[in-house]
Amino acid sequence: MKKYTYIVTIIAASLFMASCGGEDKKVAVDNSPAIKVEVSQVAEANNNPFLAVSGTIQSVNSADLSTRMMGYVTKVHVNVGDKVTKGQLLVAINNTDLQAKRAQVDAGITEATAAFNNAQKDYKRFESLFASNSASQKELDDIIANFEMAKARLEAAKQMKNEVNAQFAYSNITAPFAGVVTSKNVKEGDMANPGQPLISVESPGDFEVMAMVPETEISQIKNDIEVTVLVKSINQTLKGKVTEVSSSAKNTGGQYLVKIALDKTDANILSGMFVTVQFPIEKKSTTNIVLIPTDAIITNGQLSGVYTVSQSNTALLRWLRLGRTYGNQVEVLSGLSADEAYIVSAEGKLFNGAKISVQ
User: Which CATH code of 1.20.5.440, 1.20.1050.10, 1.10.287.470, 3.50.50.60 fits the domain covering 97-173?
Assistant: First the structure.
């Protein structure tokens, strides 16, 4: 009887499973509306035969001020953006130990001066006695030696005072030239360490450009070549002249440093602005480059990409390797071909797999 009940239970369970498996599976359907987007075709650029490289503007006179002594900062007298004059006190560092050392040095100088004056009198006295045959040569030699040692000790004490005064100069950071404070990396109560940048000062109105030229083109760059400089942020073109050309790329990854002096201008340029420098030199490479607008770039940390259109009309994020910037466009080194399209604008938030409708 038990065996019969067991068999019936097994058959019922099998029929139930079969009935469940026979039901039609329901597939989730995405009914969300498609995001309207505008696309653009990748552009190839080879219409500019001249060499163009990226660079940055910097002040001709700039200084990062630090100290050679360790101590607590007692006072910071300036803020970022303040105008300063040459020799103006910027940062004061606690120098109590230097004051004590200077007092010791002053006492040593007083003692050495007294000993020197006494030795000098003895030297003159014995010199007269020796001239009148009232002192021996040995006595005169001893007096001369004592006088020279007293003189040397006095000079050593004075040089020690010069050393202390030099250390005082490092406890009071002053402006090396007239300019503007561009950064402040310390506040009252901080510990100042030797070599630590405390204040940065720049002299406004006199700028230069630091550009990086590839090794394939550097042999054509010479001093005094006049160049055109496009300042991207303010969309202005300036003139300049090459003043220095580096002969080594050991520490710059195959790029050679070229310094360009900018002509005087009323343009509102600032240190750190990015520029494109165009040299009046034909490019050796005639390979087309792929350019896309910088506004279309999507960034995520150190990654840069662009949304493209998949075959199923969905958004597809493509990560790119970018190169140099030309105005409002950037060079694509890899990740996007010349025959592809990319999304330039959308009427909604894009994400990988989002349904799109190309307008």
Answer: 1.10.287.470
Given the candidates 2.60.120.10, 3.60.20.10, 2.40.420.20, 1.10.10.10, the CATH classification of the domain at 35-46+288-358 is 2.40.420.20
- Domain 51-60+206-282 architecture: Beta Barrel (2.40)
The model's pLDDT over 160-195, given as tens digits with 9 standing for 90+, comes to: 888 888 877 778 889 999 999 999 998 898 888 888
Q: Where in the chain is the domain with CATH 2.40.420.20?
A: 35-46+288-358
- Arithmetic mean of pLDDT over the chain: 81
Question: For residue 107, what pLDDT band results from cuts at 50, 70 and 90?
Answer: very high
Ranges for all domains in the chain classified under CATH 1.10.287.470: 97-173
pLDDT, tens digit, 9 for 90 and up, residues 74-97: 899 999 989 999 999 999 888 788
Tell me: pLDDT of 201 over 90. yes
Q: Is the pLDDT of residue 102 over 80?
A: yes
HEC per residue, the chain: CHHHHHHHHHHHHHHHHHHHHCCCCCCCCCCCCCEEEEEEECEEECCCCEEEEEEEEEECCEEEECCCCCEEEEEECCCCCCEECCCCEEEEECCHHHHHHHHHHHHHHHHHHHHHHHHHHHHHHHHHHHHCCCCCHHHHHHHHHHHHHHHHHHHHHHHHHHHHHHHHHHHEEECCCCEEEEEECCCCCCEECCCCCCEEEECCCCEEEEEEEECCCHHHCCCCCEEEEEECCCCEEEEEEEEEECCCCCCCCCEEEEEEEECCCCCCCCCCCEEEEEEEEECCCCCCEEEEEHHHCEEECCEEEEEEECCCCEEEEEEEEEEEEECCEEEEEECCCCCCEEEEEECCCCCCCCEEEEC
224 and 276 Cβ atoms separated by less than 8 Å? no
